[in-house]
Design a protein that fits this description.
This protein has 5 helices and 4 strands. Strands 3-2-1-4 form a 4-stranded mixed β-sheet, with helices on both faces. The mean pLDDT is 89. The two termini are 20 Å apart. It is globular, with a radius of gyration of 14 Å. The chain is of the alpha/beta class and 147 residues long. A hairpin with a 4-residue loop joins strand 2 and strand 3 (74-79).
Amino acid sequence: MSVENFFSTEEKKQITDAIAQAELNTSGEIRLHMEGHCKIDVLDRAAYIFEKLGMKETAQRNGVLFYLAVHDRKFAILGDAGINQVVPVNFWDQIKETMLTFFKEGKFTEGLSKGILMAGDQLKANFPRQKDDVNELSDEISFDKNL
């Protein structure tokens, strides 16, 4: 199965809706990137993708990447410098554990949506939306072939 077809059209919409909802009250940016395989350390790969997607270009350095290597069953959450300075030390691990609970039950859409909304709550608390805020990065899911 191709990575693009891992989620149904309805599931993709649920995930992108979660991203839009999470970004509604914050200047922060959230992206989901999916690949089939991750041949290196998952955090190293996520950092590479973070850079390739231009996520370090946000004005307040408050981007968050959710990275999935579907066939290898690996995932990572990576926050930029701005958000990492203000969240609790184990914050990303808490989100990963929450998502993993859903993933173990095969509820990937629900797990991702929950993790995205958790990240959005922290972004909202630390980077409230400004009246002149613009959506700096696409809410659409990106795939390995797009890079």
